[in-house]
Amino acid sequence: MLDKNGIAKRIAKELQDGYFVNLGIGIPTLVANYIPQGIEVEFQSENGVLGMGPFPFEGEEDADIINAGKQTITTMPGASFFDSAMSFGMIRGQHVDLTILGAMEVSENGDIANWKIPGKMVKGMGGAMDLVASAENIIVAMMHTNKAGASKLLKKCSLPLTGVNCVKKIVTNLAFLEVTDKGFKLLERAPGVSVEEIKNATEGNLIIEGDIPEMILD
Amino acid sequence: MIRKTVPNVTEALVGIKDDMTFMLGGFGLCGIPENTITELVKSNIKGLTCISNNAGVDDFGLGLLLQKKQIKKMISSYVGENDEFERQMLSGELDVELIPQGTLAERCRAAQGGFPAIYTPAGYGTEVAEGKETREFNGKMYVLEHAFKADFAFVKAWKGDEAGNLIFKGTARNFNPCMCGAAKITVAEVEELVPAGTLDPDHIHIPGIFVQRIFQGQDYEKRIEQRTVRKKEEV
Q: Pfam families under this entry (chain A) (predicted)?
């Protein structure tokens, strides 16, 4: 089974040289720690920066340079700043190659719910609806089940949707899956996890074809 | 040169009234018009509709206006950092319209650039699109979103000149440029107001035509919401 860092590590292996990537808050942020050797990627933050770098050294933080999580950040050589309309133009116009974000629920046809729990959490969608409506390549990073043990990979989302038919791939603590026309196709098992365990934790249609390999993380 | 300078924030806000609609720049607490917000709190005007990506925190930014119940309605994309906001929203005292962040930016820009409305894919198939016109272009579905109508746009820039030309710094730029010229009157507060001719015209982010009033801001706090740092490793 993977922890949050493990999920980030597996997703990082999907990064390709020359990719512009938008990372959501939470597990997706950790992906930046595991960029494979020998490739160049640039991180976009929708509040208006391309070429995001690591957190600043103590005492060097600048209130005018933050990411979409409102954290102080630095920039890499070649970075640029821009306004919010241009930032979402980059996203809507599909100039950003990959979007990695968290989710509360994903359905077998690729719908995603990650912004609202009616009566409980109503903080807003931020940029998530723009990102999922436009990105060509969306990977969801999440736990396979919720805290109550119920599956988050469903036939149909029960929570208000963020976007429809948009998720392409999912990495959970148990598995790596692809969203296809017929449902969740199991691509890889997390280390030490059986196909049976994944089956039991998946409510939506799970497609298992042949032997399912175990993930290779390093 | 057409001069846009006003001597202070009080002069800059002449004409504000109860029940008006305001646009306010900023992302979180980054790039917010601090002087203007302080003056709006002092003014005691009420019944405001505020278009702003966020709603500040309890004791800073738009949170200050919320504490005094001056805001009737918020149009935002994310409001998660503010307990008083949540309380007023859940009790029904505050009307809240949550919209996608890119849609918020583009509805400002449409107002700035003379478009009555725009089509965006954001929110299609979700509750955000309920009751709105949708249309298919090249096999993909889009939602019609209307340009905002606002009485004042309040923005914050790093540098500005007497002609109202603006330059922003870092990610404090965010929604500020999109809101310039998107309301009947745009008021810009700047950290450094310089004489016309000082700024290189090639470096201007927003031309002064989009700004009606500009003033030298005072005492910027520039509060950091999430101070994240790493330690310098010993060599």
A: CoA_trans (PF01144)
Query: In angstroms, what separates the C-alpha of A179 from chain B's closest C-alpha?
Result: 18
Query: Considering only CB atoms, which chain B residues are within 8 Å of A58?
Result: 229-232
pLDDT at B235 over 90: no
Domains (ranges, CATH) in chain A?
Answer: 4-207 (3.40.1080.10)
Structural domains for chain B: 9-113+147-216 (3.40.1080.10)
Q: Tokens in use for B102? A: 């890119």
- Does residue A183 come out as left (phi exceeding 0), alpha (psi in the -120 to 50 range) or beta? left
As a whole-number percent, the residues of chain B with pLDDT over 70 amount to: 99
Is A188 within 8 Å of A212 (Cβ atoms)? yes
Are B27 and A72 a contacting pair at CB < 8 A?
Answer: no
- How confident is the model at residue B82, as a pLDDT? 85
What is residue B86's predicted lDDT score, i.e. its pLDDT? Answer: 85
Answer whether A45's CB lies under 8 Å from A68's CB: yes
Catalytic-role residue among A46, A105, A108, A203: A46
Mean pLDDT, chain A, integer: 96
For residue B171, what are its two tokens?
Answer: 């990610």
Q: Which residue from B104, B127, B173 is facing A160, i.e. has the nearest CB?
A: B127
Task: For residues B46 and B157, give the distance between their C-alpha atoms in angstroms, rounded to a whole number.
Answer: 26
Q: Which pTM was predicted?
A: 0.96
CA distance B36 to B156: 9
Annotation says A46 is catalytic: yes
HEC per residue, chain B? CCCCECCCHHHHCCCCCCCCEEEECCECCECCCHHHHHHHHHHCCCCEEEECCCCCECCECCHHHHHCCCEEEEEECCCCCCHHHHHHHHCCCCEEEECCHHHHHHHHHHHHHCCCEEEECCCCCCHHHCCCCEEEECCEEEEEEECCCCCEEEEEEEEEECCCCEECCHHHCCCHHHHCCCCCEEEEEEEEEECCCCCCHHHCCECHHHCCEEEECCCCCCCCCECCCECCCCC
CA distance to partner chain B, nearest, from residue A160 (Å): 7
Express each pLDDT in B133-188 by its tens digit.
999 999 999 999 999 999 999 999 999 999 999 999 999 999 999 999 999 999 99
3-state secondary structure of A185: strand
Q: How many CB atoms lie within 10 A of CB A213?
A: 10
Percentage of residues in chain B having pLDDT higher than 90: 92
